[in-house]
Amino acid sequence: MLSDLALGIDFGTSGARAIALNPTHQIVAESRHVFTPSQVSNPTAWRSVLYQLIQAIPQRNRISRIAINGTSATVLLCDAKQNPLTPALLYNDTRARSALTQVEHFAPTGSATLSATSSLTKALWWFGSLEVAVRSQVSQLAHQADWLAAQLHGQAPESDYHNALKLGYDVHKCAYPDWLLALPIAPWLPVVNEPGRAIAPISPTIATELSLSKTCLICAGTTDSIAAFLASGATQPGEGVTSLGSTLVLKLLSQRSIDDSTFGVYSHKLGDLWLAGGASNTGGAVLKRFFSSEQIADLSAQIDPAAPCQLNYYPLNCPGERFPINDPDYLPRLDPRPAEDKDFLQGLLAAIARIEAEGYQKLFELGGPAVTRIYTAGGGAKNERWRSLRQQKIGKPVTAAAQTEAAYGTALLAMDGLTAFKRTKSSPR
Questions:
Q1: Residue 47 to residues 206, 207, 211, 216, 359: CA-CA distances in angstroms?
Q2: CA-CA distance, 274 to 401, in Å (whole number)?
Q3: Which residue from 106, 133, 203, 271 could staple onto 421, CB 3.0 to 4.6 Å apart?
């Protein structure tokens, strides 16, 4: 029986999607599921959705490798048989904020753990708040992608160094640091792999239940944002991916790590390269405050990108900016508003383009490479007039990403590992 397909599964904020690729990276099948409110943080529901997504792939008996991405810092605790002992704490859940002071005491300056929503903050909060009887049953902490992969291979959940970054894993040394191993939650720490590395074959029982090949390998996954980057087509230092969603998110491939907690910039290891990221509070949410999607499309068609724009906006919905300016009190600039809506929209689009250009310049100032090409993801990627405005501001080619689905990037990861980001190319294990 031919086993030549790779399956990538994306568990996002509002739903999940699976994409199967053939060896030439063409999509041969896909499936999706929209979460109900009760499923969003329910691991048992995630498992049901996972199995449904796989069973909806007609060619699933040809799948040779599977990888899963999940939202960064979405975690749960499980026992030795992988049974959840807690509801999942989602990526944006701040109920563990009281444990942040403990993290600040141990973690080094600039650590990605220094957040009220980090995996480590949540782990320490659980350690201090769980009843002793429950805590005694804990085998380990698992990220969303880790736990879901374990539902397929049947062994203890193993992680990847993208998900483990906010747990305190040292991606430079590829090991847990001594300060983390000295904490009381150290016994909960999962094994960490390179993303895309094969963890184990699928459980024979699950293979039969889901009509999968018993030789199918379950691979270490990644986070949803890294998966979306992998889908873009960017592989060379200096190439960046801009996500034009509710906010403006920049990611830049670099030969060195770029980290500056002042601007919320930190880097993920990507093979032999590094992926640095920064996020501004400007973006599509500000546009939606003034215009519907239909109005944006209609008015954009009326914009002449070559026409000069004298408006000097800084589009924010409320005071406060993170990147490329770090000022919690930074004020929006949205006046004056021209009489013509198309001129107002052009001013907003041009301002966001300027902030994007300043963001890549900031990454350069922090030690990254000069940007050479930008791939665009998110809802704004379809706006051709905006693309022209952005290309003018940045002065480098700006194109739509080859693919925008995180599941596609995760399928690439399952098939090829991180070989595209290694100086010496080798096949994933």
A1: 12, 15, 16, 18, 39
A2: 19
A3: 271
3-class DSSP state of 223: strand
Among candidate residues 54, 333, 394, the one with its CA nearest the CA of residue 207: 54
Q: How far apart are CA 40 and CA 31, in angstroms?
A: 18
Nearest residue to 96 (alpha-carbon basis) of 69, 66, 75: 75
Q: Apex CA 407: angle with CA 402 and CA 410, to 5°?
A: 90
Per-residue pLDDT tens over the stretch 228-251:
999 999 999 999 999 998 899 999
Please report how many Cα atoms fall inside a 13 Å half-sphere around the Cα of residue 124, on the Cβ side: 27
Tokens encoding 366: 């922090």
Its pTM surpasses 0.70: yes
115's CB contacts (< 8 A; 6+ apart) are: 73, 100, 121, 166
Which two three-digit tokens encode residue 376? Answer: 């665009």
Q: Which pair of tokens denotes residue 172? A: 């430079």
Listing DSSP states for 135-185 in one string gives: HTT--EEEEHHHHHHHHHH-S---EETTGGGGGT-BTTTTB--HHHHTSTT
